[in-house]
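Changelog note: in this version the structure field was regenerated for every chain. One regenerated record is shown below for reference.
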Amino acid sequence: MATPRASQPVKKSIARNQASNTHHRYTVKDLDEAQHTYDLSERDDIYLHLVYGHNGIGSASCGPDVLPEYELRTEPFHFSVKLKPISLQNNSPAVLSRSE
């Protein structure tokens, strides 16, 4: 698979409905350590962050813990990610967002 240039748009498809993702020019460590957005310096690379699930609200830090039915339980799972370089010259972003 060809590696897209940093300036080249990339379409990403996540194969699970529960999953979400973000992409930006900061590492997880950058985001964790920053106190404010102005503390962040963009990197040359683009980082894709995949999120499989979220725990319910509540942490027992100042109130009750998450109810059992909303607790995120870790268990093995499989997923796939498809990254495909795209060209905006011949394609509409609206059409590309609906295609596989």
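Spot check on this record: Residues 12 and 97 are 9 Å apart (CA to CA). The chain has a mean pLDDT of 75.
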